[in-house]
Design brief:
Distance between the termini: 46 Å
Number of domains: 1
Largest sheet: 8 strands, mixed
Number of strands: 8
CATH class: Alpha Beta
CATH topology: Rossmann fold
Strand order of the largest sheet: 3-4-2-5-1-6-7-8
Structural class: alpha/beta
Helix content: 40-55%
Shape: globular
CATH superfamily: P-loop containing nucleotide triphosphate hydrolases
Length: 302
């Protein structure tokens, strides 16, 4: 009788993905007349509050009657579910393993937010193959037919995962804090987007600003170097003030916009959303353009 060690019974995620990779991708269905708006929210450095920004912006959009889906694209270290105090049973790793479809793992968050959760602690997801990226986007394309807005919460940094999720969005919002390292890393991120991905514009949100003037100054510094060295135009959306109530909300796993709607940070999120709505991208896709399929044909994912 042959004995097996416990490790023999472990099926690695990469091994299980091989069975999924040969499955044909179905052609997406026809889209509704009004195509969704797709915004990637990213940062050069971790710790600037990007995920908190994404969640509160999504909540504020929902309050204005928009149907919002947030994709947690920090695939190996996703923590959007923790921030929102929800515990999804399934996540994108189950999609890549062929156990679930994208539509089957979507969960509801506060304020009717829809969440597409990522996995946490699965190293292989931090470096997706081209086929895996195509699989996620091709399954996501028909899902976003029913929403007004898709917010992509990327990981921080300049990895291929981060860059590719930025590249498929209509708009990119870079979150930066007043720290010198955060400003430097935000510029590095935009440099890669401009040079390697030919991105021509980004929007900027300054988080943890102690004054409005400080937020303006951070944008001024970034604008100065991008105008001088990059073929890119950046636009200032605004700032979110440093607010102790944000930390209190995080500790309670609740959004500050929900828990303390009249605090300065919550008011700033509503203002940012109004400005984003007032400044749509220069070109929105036609209703039947199949957004991600269009980008899959144009972008050479690494």
């Amino acid at each position: 009788m042959n004995s097996k060690s416990p490790s023999d019974n472990v099926i690695r995620l990469s091994d299980r993905m091989k069975h999924k990779s040969s499955k044909p991708v179905s052609t997406p269905r026809s889209r509704r007349a009004a195509a969704p708006r797709v915004i990637a929210v990213t940062s050069g450095k971790g710790g600037v509050g990007k995920t908190n920004i994404v969640a509160n912006l999504g909540f504020a959009f929902c309050r204005l009657g928009k149907k919002v889906l947030i994709l947690d694209a920090d695939l190996g270290l996703g923590n959007l579910d923790v921030l929102l105090g929800i515990a999804p049973k399934y996540n994108l790793s189950h999609v890549l393993m062929g156990e679930k479809s994208v539509s089957e793992i979507i969960v509801q968050g506060p304020g009717n937010l829809l969440i597409l959760p990522a996995a946490s602690g699965i190293q292989e997801l931090t470096q997706l193959t081209k086929q895996q990226k195509i699989q996620i986007l091709s399954e996501l394309d028909p899902v976003i037919d029913s929403v007004d807005l898709l917010l992509i919460d990327t990981a921080a940094g300049i990895s291929s995962n981060v860059m590719d999720f930025n590249a498929i969005a209509q708009e990119i919002i870079v979150v930066v804090s007043p720290e010198p390292t955060a400003i430097t890393d935000a510029y590095a991120l935009m440099k890669v987007l401009a040079i390697k991905y030919a991105e021509k514009s980004c929007k900027i949100i300054v988080n943890l600003a102690h004054t409005r003037q400080q937020g303006n100054e951070v944008f001024r510094q970034l604008n100065l170097v991008t105008e001088r060295f990059l073929d890119m135009r950046i636009e200032y959306v605004g700032s979110v003030p440093f607010d102790a109530n944000v930390t209190q909300g995080i500790k309670q796993q609740k959004l500050v916009s929900d828990l303390f709607p009249d605090t300065p940070a919550s008011k700033s999120f509503r203002g940012l959303v109004r400005k984003i709505i007032a400044q749509p991208p220069s070109q929105l896709p036609d209703g039947d353009s199949h957004f991600f399929w269009h980008h899959l044909m144009e972008n050479n994912f690494s």
